[in-house]
Amino acid sequence: MADKQISLPAKLINGGIAGLIGVTCVFPIDLAKTRLQNQQNGARLYTSMSDCLIKTIRSEGYFGMYRGAAVNLTLVTPEKAIKLAANDFFRHHLSKDGKLTLFKEMLAGCGAGTCQVIVTTPMEMLKIQLQDAGRLEITTALFQLLLMLKIQNKLMPETVAAGTVETKSPTAMQLTRDLLREKGIAGLYKGLGATLLRDVPFSIIYFPLFANLNNLGKRGIDGPAPFYVSFLSGCLAGSTAAVAVNPVDVIKTRLQSLNRGSTEDTYSGVTDCIRKIMRNEGPSAFLKGAYCRALVIAPLFGIAQVVYFLGVGEFILSFLPKKDN
């Protein structure tokens, strides 16, 4: 049986609503994931997700956990809409010639992952700078404090100046303007290769796994799966795919971070990043934030699939006046 066909406007509405609800619920965990992935051995401020969130609330307040949320909430609608609609489009066309095999499902996921990076890359680029700003501020403040304690009253004028520089968190608009002015549109697409390496395998794993798990809970051959089956299938498929591609997500996060602490490594590309992480932090560094990422992606895609399969978009469109033929 071919997949249920939904109109493009309904797909876009479903994807957008699912993204807005999901991001609002899990954004603090996503912030913790970014900060855990970005900290290197020389500057470990956080020991776990809970430690990161507690310290963030203490130093930046409750809304500090939502740094960068405006960027995500603005761009997650087209990002999720493109991802879900593209997968549905490719599945529909690949199933025209017969049964939708596992390979064709993976091919459809590959197409969806490739399409979404148009929005995902600049969204992640801006979000990471805003999310990591608090960690960098704390790192800078600690460095200044240690410097002042070390040299105490023997400070030279130039050292005082260097040790008392205040850091100010940038806004999304400031970051966008600076990147466009200095590097053009390419500045917003820094880390595009790493984003493709993360999102394409993620979609190849996620969409076929979700479809097959969801089919297990269908009522009869042609009946739809209950909403709770869609939710659990989305959670399980999302968390599995998230953990599988987490090493690439660590690389992407490091490459897209523009500002670093004075003792932290910089990277010229994917291979340079892999080499330095392996040499300085070991293989376990590629699993940094994996637990957080699974906790972010599981409900995010669970909610997305419930909204999609409940037909929220179709319900909203039903209130619009229909054109007479």
Describe the 3D structure.
- The chain is mainly alpha-helical.
- The chain has a single domain, classed as Mitochondrial carrier domain (Mitochondrial carrier fold, Alpha/alpha barrel).
- The chain has helices at 8-38, 49-60, 69-94, 102-151, 157-163, 172-183, 185-188, 192-216, 227-244, 246-256, 270-280, 290-310, 312-317.
Compute the number of structural domains. 1
SS summary, helix count: 13
CA distance, first residue to last residue: 30 Å
- Using DSSP, what is the number of strands? 0
Which topology does CATH recognise? Mitochondrial carrier fold
Beta-strand residue percentage: under 5%
**Main beta-sheet annotation:** none
Following the backbone from N to C, one meets helices and strands in this order, namely HHHHHHHHHHHHH
Q: Helices and strands: which structural class? A: mainly alpha
The whole-number mean of residue pLDDT values reads 83
CATH homologous superfamily heading: Mitochondrial carrier domain
Show unreliable segments. Answer: 155-166
Q: Determine Rg (CA atoms, Å).
A: 22 Å
Q: Quick one: CATH class?
A: Mainly Alpha
What gross morphology would you assign? Answer: globular
- Helical proportion? over 70%
The CATH architecture designation is: Alpha/alpha barrel
Catalytic activity: L-glutamate(in) + H(+)(in) = L-glutamate(out) + H(+)(out)
Function: Mitochondrial glutamate/H(+) symporter. Responsible for the transport of glutamate from the cytosol into the mitochondrial matrix with the concomitant import of a proton. Plays a role in the control of glucose-stimulated insulin secretion.
Main location: mitochondrion
GO biological process, one term: malate-aspartate shuttle
